[in-house]
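User: My advisor asked me to double-check a structure prediction for MotA/TolQ/ExbB proton channel family protein before group meeting. I don't want to rely on an old file, so could you generate it fresh from this sequence?
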Amino acid sequence: MDIASLVGIISGLVLIVSAIFIGGSADIFVNVPGLMIVIGGTMAATLLTVQFKDVTNAFKGAYIVFTRDNTNPIEMIDTMIKLSKISHRHGLLKLGDVKTDSAVLKRACNLLSEAASEQVIRNTLQNEIDSLLARHFAVQDVFRKMGTYAPAFGMLGTLIGLIQMLSELDNPDKLGPAMAVALLTTFYGSVMATMMFLPIAGKLKARTVLEVTNLEIIREGSISILTNDHYAHVYEQLSSYLPERERKPINSDKAAPAKGKTK
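Assistant: Sure, here is a fresh prediction for MotA/TolQ/ExbB proton channel family protein from the sequence you gave:
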């Protein structure tokens, strides 16, 4: 579970709901037609803009925001160091027997065990990176568009409410409540955009950066293993992906990966 995402959404909702209850009755913030305009309009505009499969993939992938990715670049570097040691001790062919829960890492090991050329390995793993970027960008784009459309449809709902309100000018007692209802759709659109759609897009972008970094480590580490570089040299090269404060002297006896671990 990603604690930061969970704390963020819960604290945000608690603050908004608390402000509503402190200010008065919560009933005045409920307007079904307004919700229909914002939610329905946002979904309709999104479906008009992107492919249906991208929308379904976006909602399927939204859970990633609340899950914790157990593989960080440090652990992936440790994994590549371990593979380098296996290669030095037993040869490249032994890497074909490595078991890992990372499909890309397993593919890299298979290419190495088959003695594929450096160009083949580089192109294959770069294609994996490009494919991941394309998939993730499509998902992020769905939420970014929804974050744009929700406030717009909120304003549209407000305009509809204002038109209805102006038709009641002969009854001053109804103007205040009618104005409140008209403004609710803007409220709904703003909350959905700032508390849901845009933060989700931002978190997914951060996860993409992490995944791409891990794949680049696999790519460069695999090429170093192919050229039979010493594992200390492999570490020096791959540690450039880490901030200076996270770099450490290599321990020749330790290389314990997590998510992309070998078995």
